[in-house]
Amino acid sequence: MQIAVTTPTGNVGRHVVTALLRAGVRPRVLLRDPARLDPAVKDEVDAVRVDQYDSAAVAGATRDVDALFWVDPTTGSEDPLGDYTRATASVVRAVTENHIGRVVFQSSVGAEKRQGAGEIDGLARTETALDALGVDVTHLRCGYFFTNLELQLDALRAGALRVVLPLDQPMAWVAPRDIAEVAAGRLLSSAWSGRCVQAVHGPADLTWREVAGILTAATGHPIGVERITDDAMRGLLHGAGMTDGLVEAVLGMSTGLREDFVPEQPRTVRTTTPTTLASWAYDHLRHLIGDTGTGTVS
């Protein structure tokens, strides 16, 4: 089986690559700069230089591929949903021209709304486009990444996270490595077919108050959380250098899910993954908070 992996240096993709290597698979990895690959895996993969927004290049890079792990690339432009549309065109062309029969797509909790969830709407469009192709596809509806906290290092060091969600509203939090394990399992398994949705909810739904307490205990650094207005968050996002269009797309991921949203799939043994926020924060985040590097608020 020839498996292709996009974003192989990302928070999830790099773990997908190593999981496939452990399973005895030599994956084909698609990325803009092969020099960014971990030296430990460089000789264990087939790297192809490609821009995921270039549909012809993606189609060329995925010839003879049997299964594809697709992640829409991150965008920093004024028109993030337009970028998602371009990325969707690339994966649709690749799957169609190369007759790729199996796709695992990294989506998000909230994509089931289809519209009204900011940047997540772009993922929803990719879902519907892949569904229309009639191939075997699994959409991974992932919770809030632990690693999103790395974008708020300055706020964490100052001991004050700022959010627009209600502080007692629970939501799914998940470790990217756990998402990767689910993705690799789906890529390698022949036990499923058709259109599937697989939620990846982490071990527990957490409120922001609970998150602040967990981070305080795990890092030894007092961390509080404050709910601020949407306009105040816009100011923080603009201050971090985001374009107007990206600010609204990022903000919409929170505002679009804070009123009466319930994920399509409930928490079950199938949707629950093991890594806790406490263990991840102790192993990883506490060292970053102790560093003197620069973080941004998002």
How would you portray this structure in words?
With 298 residues, the chain is α/β, with parallel strands linked by helices. 40% of the residues lie in helices and 18% in strands. The protein contains 11 helices and 12 strands. Strands 3-2-1-4-5-6-10 form a 7-stranded parallel sheet, with helices on both faces. It has a 3-stranded mixed sheet with strand order 7-9-11. It has a two-stranded parallel sheet with strand order 8-12. The longest helix is centred in the N-terminal third of the chain and has 19 residues.
Q: How large is the count of helical segments?
A: 11
Structural class: alpha/beta
Strand order of the largest sheet: 3-2-1-4-5-6-10
Indicate the low-confidence ranges by residue numbers.
Answer: 292-298
Largest sheet: 7 strands, parallel
Overall morphology: globular
Secondary structure elements and their pairing?
Blueprint lengths: L2 E4 L6 H10 L5 E4 L7 H4 L3 E4 L5 H7 L5 E4 L9 H19 L3 E7 L11 H12 L4 E7 L1 E2 L7 H6 L1 E4 L7 E4 L1 H13 L6 E6 L3 E3 L1 H12 L4 E4 L2 H10 L4 H12 L21 H14 L8
Parallel strand pairs: 1-2, 1-4, 2-3, 4-5, 5-6, 6-10, 7-9, 8-12
Antiparallel strand pairs: 9-11
In brief:
This protein is of the alpha/beta class and 298 residues long. The protein has helices at 13-22, 39-42, 55-61, 80-98, 120-131, 153-158, 176-188, 208-219, 230-239, 244-255, 277-290; strands spanning 3-6, 28-31, 46-49, 67-70, 102-108, 136-142, 144-145, 160-163, 171-174, 195-200, 204-206, 224-227.
